[in-house]
Design brief:
Rossmann fold; 11 helices; alpha/beta
């Protein structure tokens, strides 16, 4: 399904689950599509009585692309960010939060629980801080406050994410590249069998391949200001979850996020990297469902 937002961008979305249930707006991370949410998590939320609303962020999946007229260089902007000059970007996390709000408006959803992973957690933070009257609760997973010490540093994980696939690569070469990233950032010992993982990635690749869009999303993350002051404005019940072995965004970034949101609860997840591996879905599901139910009870 697709909706055209007032600013002209088309957003692809999937609206599922009990129509009378509380809505959970699910915001994916960098370069990821709405189909990247584990199906067991989505169906589990439906079983708990929630309606789920997933969407492709701008520049990802089947949503519209944004033209970067300045043709900014990702590595140059990463260096600017690392030395404190501030990266430049064709759009901001605030713009992406407005996309999510625009989708809610188009579907006439007054308020929703917000669950975001990685960059999606950052977008969710902005949404909860700046449009808190539309948010029932926030769950920020494997994300960051934008504090300078947690911005991009050269590590094997950031190097893998910042490195584009080979030029003129065929499907198999692109899949090799995607698998490499997955193995670098994923939860150790919890990945599916190689053939299963490759077919999952193949399905994602054939649905959409947006390397330029991923780089523009990366620029938006790099250009985002330190959100710690913004986080103090969040008044909705907030849960922060983070993997203990996340190689891309360290667990200290999750703890820092929770420390700057009044009343936030922090949950560390042993063995989890920068992904949502199948063996941990039941625990993640239980925590999200309990948090959303408690927020609804508190508001009643």
């Amino acid at each position: 399904m697709r909706v055209e937002l007032p600013h002209g961008l088309g957003i692809e979305y999937q609206d599922e689950g009990p129509k009378s249930g509380p809505v959970i707006l699910m915001i994916m991370g960098l370069g990821m599509q709405l189909t990247a949410w584990p199906r067991t998590l989505i169906e589990g939320l439906h079983d708990h009585g929630f309606r789920t609303l997933r969407f492709d962020n701008r520049d990802a999946g089947l949503s519209d692309r944004v033209v970067d007229r300045a043709r900014l260089d990702i590595r140059a902007e990463a260096m600017r960010s690392m030395i404190g000059l501030g990266a430049r970007s064709p759009y901001s996390l605030q713009d992406m939060a407005q996309d999510a709000l625009g989708l809610m408006n188009a579907l006439m959803i007054d308020r929703a629980h917000v669950v975001g992973v990685s960059m999606g957690g950052m977008i969710g933070q902005v949404l909860a801080a700046e449009s808190g009257q539309r948010v029932r609760s926030l769950t920020s997973i494997m994300s960051s406050s934008g504090a300078p010490r947690f911005r991009f540093h050269w590590t094997p994980a950031t190097r893998a994410v910042l490195t584009p696939p080979p030029r003129a690569a065929d499907e198999e070469a692109i899949l090799d590249h995607m698998e490499h990233i997955w193995h670098v950032i994923g939860s150790p010992g919890m990945q599916p069998p190689p053939a299963v993982l490759r077919e999952r990635l193949r399905a994602e690749l054939r649905r959409a391949n947006t390397p330029g869009g991923t780089m523009r999303q990366m620029l938006a993350v790099m250009a985002s200001a330190d959100r710690r002051t913004l986080l103090k404005r969040i008044e909705v019940p907030t849960l922060v979850m983070h993997g203990e072995v996340d190689p891309l965004i360290p667990i200290a970034a999750g703890r820092d996020t929770a420390a700057h949101v009044r009343g936030a609860r922090f949950i560390s997840i042993p063995g989890m990297g920068h992904d949502l591996p199948d063996p941990l879905i039941s625990a993640v599901l239980a925590d999200i469902a309990a948090h959303c139910r408690a927020a609804d009870s508190q508001a009643a």
